[in-house]
Structure formats: C-alpha cells, structure tokens
Amino acid sequence: MSASVPPSIAPKRILYTMLRVSDLDRSIAFYHNMLGMSELGRETFPDAEFTAVFMGYGNRKTDAVIEITYNWDKRSYEHGTAYGNLSLAVDDVYALTAYLEENGVKVLRPAGEVPMVSTETGEKHTLAFIADPDGYRIELMQTA
Fold it and tell me: Judging by DSSP bridges, how do beta strands 86-90 and 107-113 pair with one another?
C-alpha cells in the first residue's frame, strides 16, 4: 500500500467509538456523572433490538463521541485483547482520580507520571487508568 487516498474522497474526521454495554442507564450515569459527558443523541432500533446513545463533550456533528450500545437480548461480551482504551484529556488527573475513587469508580492505575519519555517529543505523561461499569479501560491524560 504505497498510494495515498485522494483528499477528495478521504474520510474527514472520527465520528465515534462504539462500546457494547450491559446496562444502558448505568453506563449513561457513569459517563455523565463521573466523567462529565452529556448525552448528545439517541437512536433506538426496535426491529434490530438495540439502542445507541451518543455521549461526549461537544457537538456530535463536529467532535468525536462515544456510542454506548445496549442490545436488548442481554447477551454477554468479552473484551478483545487487541482493544486498548479510551483516552480523555483532563486538567488535574490527581484530583479527578481521587474524586472517582471516592465515588466507587475502579482505579486500575493510580495517577502519576509515566517514567518513560517519548523519543519523538521528549515529553513525559501524567495519567491514570480507570474502568467503566463494563470494565472498559479509560485513560485519564493530564493535558494542562
């Protein structure tokens, strides 16, 4: 693959990442109450027996969002080993992680500076990892 897609037909932006969830109301509450996201849209498909809710921080028409999908048949899912995490920009990873932990959110990696340095940027990152109610990993990256 050496050719580049012509700009006139290339994708223009990331729309969303979809996560399948076991309890739609619980997931909406988590992303809203614990991470400050708003519900930006909802699409229900009775014939296909699923509901998709779009959560995020900005405008669904211009910003990438998360689609949380609830399949009505309540089948269970396994997380694949190739999946990594969602990453969210935060101003104070220490304060947010403490707040989340106090409110029962599972902290997978406490807030702290990563000891490695990027060879390209020379930057160190300060981050934490948490889990959503279905166990999806969420990276909280300090950007301020």
Answer: unpaired
> How many Å from the N-terminal Cα to the C-terminal Cα in the chain?
38
Instruction: Please give the sequence-ordered ranges of beta strands (E in DSSP) within 12-136, or none if there are none.
Output: 16-20, 38-45, 50-56, 65-71, 86-90, 107-113, 126-131
Long-range contacts of 45-51 (CB under 8 A, 24+ apart): 49/73, 51/24
As beta bridge partners, residue 86 has 138
- pLDDT tens for the chain, 144 residues long, are 678 988 887 888 889 999 999 999 999 999 999 999 999 999 999 999 999 999 999 999 999 999 999 999 977 888 887 888 999 999 999 999 999 999 999 999 999 999 888 889 888 899 999 999 999 999 999 997
CB 86 within 8 A of CB 93: no
Residues involved in catalysis: 139
54 contacts 70 by C-beta, under 8 angstroms:
no
